[in-house]
Design a protein that fits this description.
Order of helices and strands: HHHEEHEHEHEEEEHEHEEEH
Largest sheet: 5 strands, mixed
Oligomer: single chain
Strand content: 15-25%
Shape: elongated
Number of helices: 9
Structural class: alpha/beta
Distance between the termini: 58 Å
Radius of gyration: 27 Å
Number of strands: 12
């Protein structure tokens, strides 16, 4: 058996129809039938039950299908690793990050990296901070860029920059005219926040805890843009970073927070023991050595 015929078998197992499978593979029906005959002869058993009109994968075929899938995945992984050994700039880097970083930090880093590694490929995934960290634990991501630092001893962490946090208030709010405020000044306000699985919410909760206050949270959202709109409409206040490259919505004012920890630390994390490709290691080294502009 050869790799091409194993791939043909998987298509045939999915379609259970020789004519359809041959059309999908761009080969003739007799060619596919002969390949299946050779495979079954080598294994010493039929892999399909046959009736007049189509094939039906039998239990032996189902077992073979499972192992062939795994074998072809291993071959694909080996091909990718060898390719990156020959050219470390090649290879796919799976990178996960919270939604808000996709507006400024991720494009900034990838654009800069592509100048020195133009063939590098990226598989990008954005989600809440908890889901981003879980994707790294599960092996779904090679690297993550997130905030705050994951509380997991299996994950290594390198801080990249700090992003300042502001008190977002409606433009007509009494605090809107202040040059600066503290968390204590806003302790009696009604707050709009992200849901608990989001990193900014976790940072905000810690900020309030250190200030000795418990915020009155009246609304929770899943997007910072939604919170900006709600604040601008006069429905509450929030602790937010600036929106990079975009003017704040009309009716919203950002007031600097004086609390010393009114910022979120953004960094990159990776699994301490999981093997990585040269492409991933090169990108990780690049972002660790790069000075990211403070915000």
């Amino acid at each position: 058996m050869n790799v091409a015929e194993l791939r043909w078998f998987l298509v045939l197992a999915d379609t259970e129809h020789v004519t359809d499978a041959a059309a999908m593979l761009h080969i003739t029906q007799p060619t596919l039938s002969r390949a299946l005959h050779r495979l079954e002869k080598e294994l010493g058993t039929p892999l399909f039950d046959r009736d007049r009109h189509r094939l039906h994968l039998n239990p032996r075929g189902e077992v073979f299908q499972q192992h062939v899938r795994r074998a072809l995945q291993e071959i694909s992984t080996a091909e990718d690793r060898i390719a990156t050994m020959l050219d470390p700039q090649q290879g796919t880097i799976s990178l996960a990050f919270p939604h808000s970083f996709g507006r400024w930090l991720i494009p900034e880093l990838i654009s800069a990296y592509r100048q020195q590694a133009p063939t590098a490929q990226f598989l990008l995934h954005s989600d809440a901070a908890d889901a981003v960290v879980q994707s790294l634990r599960d092996g779904g991501s090679d690297l993550i860029i997130t905030s705050p630092e994951p509380a997991d001893p299996d994950l290594a962490w390198h801080p990249l920059c700090e992003e300042r946090l502001w008190l977002a208030v409606p433009a007509a709010h009494p605090l809107a005219g202040r040059e600066e405020v503290s968390i204590a000044d806003a302790a009696a306000e009604q707050f709009i926040t992200l849901r608990p699985e989001f990193g900014l919410r976790q940072t905000t909760d810690l900020l309030f805890s250190r200030a000795g206050h418990t915020p009155a949270i009246t609304m929770e959202a899943t997007e910072i843009a939604t919170i900006r709109g709600l604040v601008a409409s006069g429905l509450g206040v929030s602790v937010l970073p600036r929106d990079p490259g975009t003017a704040e919505p009309e009716g919203l004012t950002l007031v600097p927070l004086t609390d010393t920890d009114a910022h979120r630390t953004i960094g990159t994390a990776w699994h301490r023991t999981r093997p990585t490709t040269p492409a991933v290691r090169n990108f990780r080294t690049f972002i660790a050595e790069r000075t990211v502009r403070q915000r």
